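Re: [ENG-882] Designed sequences occasionally contain unexpected residues at chain ends

Forwarding the minimal case from QA. Structure tokens:
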């Protein structure tokens, strides 16, 4: 099973503010949906809380919420107490590509522990104010490929580039 991470990052590494996303990029949301659909997704409890209730669990995906709380319950979700258990569960279910979807604490932990095989990063080409950041990583450790280049338009107010990074062996 491949473990992938998917994230949208500003030029100053900001990914969120006040437990929310900052930008509204429907085209990138569509990429996120198409990429993760019918797969297992692994989310930190705070990121899961930040998803508007009408959109969660994210449909047509197995939603795995990671929390340290022993009594945490959420309808139609798998709840686990560690990131390793989340990945194990996806593997046990026969998943081929499991997606780590954030937030900041979870991204930091999976990268520090070398659990990620590839990353889909949407680089939003502006700086934003925020309180949650994507960890810096060494681009030399990853083979990168540009998937989408999108210039701002009426519906997507910021330029962005989607790149796929594969961990070098
Ligand atoms: N731009 C993007 O692509 C993107 C993507 C995702 C999220 N975000 C943003 O990121 C922010 C949320 O990120 P965050 O860093 O505050 O929180 P988070 O990573 O989503 O969740 C943190 C929570 O996860 C649980 N947790 C973390 N590490 C754990 C571990 N090792 N074992 C078990 N449980 C663990 C804990 O839950 P308990 O407290 O319940 O124990 C912890 O409080 C929001 O602003 C969101 O909008 C942005």
């Amino acid at each position: 099973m491949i473990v992938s991470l998917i994230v949208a990052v500003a030029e100053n590494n900001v990914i969120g503010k006040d437990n929310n996303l900052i930008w509204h990029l429907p085209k990138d949301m569509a990429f996120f949906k198409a990429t993760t659909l019918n797969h297992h997704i692994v989310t930190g409890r705070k990121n899961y809380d930040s998803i508007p209730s009408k959109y969660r669990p994210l449909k047509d995906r197995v939603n795995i919420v990671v929390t340290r709380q022993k009594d945490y319950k959420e309808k139609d979700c798998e709840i686990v107490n560690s990131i390793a258990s989340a990945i194990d569960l996806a593997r046990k279910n026969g998943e081929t590509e499991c997606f780590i979807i954030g937030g900041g604490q979870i991204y930091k932990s999976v990268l520090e522990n070398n659990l990620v095989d590839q990353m889909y990063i949407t680089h939003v080409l502006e700086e934003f104010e925020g309180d949650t950041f994507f960890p810096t990583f060494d681009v030399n450790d990853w083979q990168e490929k540009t998937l989408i280049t999108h210039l701002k338009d009426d519906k997507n107010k910021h330029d962005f580039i989607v790149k796929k990074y594969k961990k070098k062996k």
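QA comment: On inspection the terminal residues look reasonable. The mean pLDDT is 97. Proposing we downgrade this to a documentation issue.
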